[in-house]
Write a structure and sequence with these properties.
single chain, alpha+beta, five-stranded mixed beta sheet, four-stranded antiparallel beta sheet, 3 helices, 9 strands, about 20% helix, globular
């Protein structure tokens, strides 16, 4: 499975994503794409989740999905320009993310306090 990411500025946290064969689980909600035949595509609107954008496709046997990737006001380049993820094993999928700005401020303050 290939997961493409579409960065979007919003205050939502990065979702918990996992894969089980051809099932994508986002924050506990399951989306089963196993019935999608070779060469077919499914518009994101038909999936019934705002996490999906573009089309879900099966090309050369590979399932390809595009998910929204929420980010804050100043995303790192890894979040603003994410590489597609090739998922070859079942389990959690680590999406790129930036720590919340409160966490960054707290760790900066800790470094300052140490000196």
């Amino acid at each position: 499975m290939i997961i493409k990411l579409s960065p979007i500025r919003c205050e939502k946290p990065v979702p918990a994503v996992s894969v089980q064969a051809e099932i994508v689980v986002i924050d506990g909600e399951r989306f089963d794409f196993s019935p999608l035949p070779e060469g077919a595509s499914l518009p994101a609107e038909a999936v019934g989740s705002t996490w999906f954008v573009g089309q879900v496709e099966r090309i050369a046997g590979e399932l390809i999905v595009t998910l929204r990737l929420p980010h804050g006001a100043s995303p790192s380049s890894a979040v603003a320009f994410p590489e597609p993820l090739t998922v070859t094993v079942d389990g959690p999928v680590m999406l790129p993310f930036d720590p919340p700005e409160d966490d960054v401020l707290a760790s900066t303050e800790e470094v300052i306090d140490e000196h």
